[in-house]
Specification:
The structure holds 2 protein chains of 2 kinds. Chain A contains 11 helices and 10 strands. Chain A is α/β, with parallel strands linked by helices. Chain A has a domain of 157 residues: Rossmann fold (3-Layer(aba) Sandwich), CATH 3.40.50. In chain A, α3 packs across α5, α3 runs parallel beside α6 and α5 crosses α6. By secondary structure, chain B is mostly helical. Chain B has one domain. Chain B is built from 15 helices and 2 strands. The longest helix of chain B has 26 residues. Chain B is globular and about 55 Å long. The two termini of chain B are 23 Å apart. The chains are: A alpha/beta, B mainly alpha. Chains A and B meet through α2, α3 and α4 of A and α9 and α10 of B.
Chain lengths: 260, 302
Amino acid sequence: MTAPILEVRGLTKTFAGMVALDDLSFTVNEGEIAGLIGPNGSGKSTVVNLVSGVLIPTSGQVVMRGQDVTGAASHQMARRGVARTFQMIRLFGTLSVEDNIALALQQKDGPGYLPSFFRTAAARRQRAAAGVKARDMLKLFDLEEKASNLASDLSIGQRRMVELARGLASEPTIFILDEPAAGLAPHNVDRLIDMIRRMRDEFGVTILLVEHVMRVVQSVCDRVVVLDYGQKIADGPPAEVVNQPEVIEAYIGLGRGKDA
Amino acid sequence: MRTPLILLLTAAIACALPAVLESGYFINVAIIALIYVILASSLDIMMGWTGKFSFAHAAFFGIGAYTAAMMQRSFGTDLWVHLPAGMASAALFGVLLGLPSLRLQGHFLAIMSIAFQTVVYLVLAQWTDVTGGHYGLSVEVSPELANVSTFYFVTLGCTLVACLFVWFLTHSRFGDTLTAIRDDETLARTIGMDTNIVKIIAFAISSALAGGAGVLMAHHIRGVTPNDYTVMTSATIVAMAVLGGRGKFWGPVVGALILTILPEVLSDLAEYKHIMYGALLIFMIMVMPQGVVGALAGRKAK
């Protein structure tokens, strides 16, 4: 069996003595849509920030495709194929939608700074190719008409789709979605579910989905890891996990806990 | 590619200036204006494109000028040696200031830059044995550059090269990276940009151009004194970029021209120059934060 795409081993993070994450281990396999759920403050965002290089773990390891990448900075993680979206959507507000995506995919396929400065033929070709690929991505997300709009002019649902297009365009090894349904209207949530599935089915992207909205998790995830107070309390297919008493107790609440 | 062509055309027209302006006084004003065009444009690499405010630009301007004066005193060198040397020393100090301060967020770079500017001024003013103290040092110009019209052409050529460089830099992938840092540095890192290195390089380039402007200034006014390179000078350069429009190629160019030529036209009010700059800066930030060029471009877009 090949090494998992992402393997987290004994990950612990403390903030000034407060334990945000306590000896967490889980894996994400190639082509899988893995969910990471848990109540507010259970450590989900800390996991995302540790895996994407924003934070450095207190102890434990982050391993990608068998390689230890613990403590790498976020631009290094990006170069190793970690793409992510943000709970509070982040786009370059003064750039066009197309440029937002072209900029991200040029990190891998773009011209070097010097050829780009001297506008060599190869650099211009690479820049044009990035634009074409960005527009193709936008077409996939039904946003081709918005290509030349400023990213800051779009609605929240559209901005979320641009974030997905940006990550997908960079051909990530693993795509981390940090609460992508946050702030979306119900019909946009349907669209989100559809696009997450298509990213995996049509593009083979491995996805780690951190989510609050159970409907999204249950309809797209192959497997779910449940966190509570920084510890893993369940790991398995969503249908099984949601019926485990600890999960109901911790995540869904005491009301239904009594029934279980 | 339209902007570089317009720039070349403008420079070609500016070549006729010495023939039109009979008096050497106006040519002197034009030379100062061109030097400030280099200063404001190079500051805007940091301020407009990268979104990092620095009030130390006059320090790098001064480091370039003093490099020229001190090299001439020690080695008897001329302008063509001083230009690369002044740019290199300013870039070096830019990296020294940038390494600790560019990691800081928000207004801390601005505060650090004011501190650096003050230290540089104090060294220039107090280290009399090396810098000549308050009296400064004199600079001699080689005979072939002594004519004011000739020096004007040299300055015009340098300004053209500097402006073209800034345009090509900001309109390349490097410039896109600077814009990304300005808009959202966290996101820039997340998509794989090594923002710390890029900011240091941008700061070094910005400082080097200011150093080059300082070398020209030292040769133009035939000497250096610390009072030409104070935080007031830095604030004036900031005011030029803000007035013209940050993050727009023509913004700092237009701002520098307005703020060097206007005080000469209104020479009776020259004493109140800095008060006017201050008031103008507040007015611009409140009413027209995108600057004159930005406001005109915005109107055209509508």
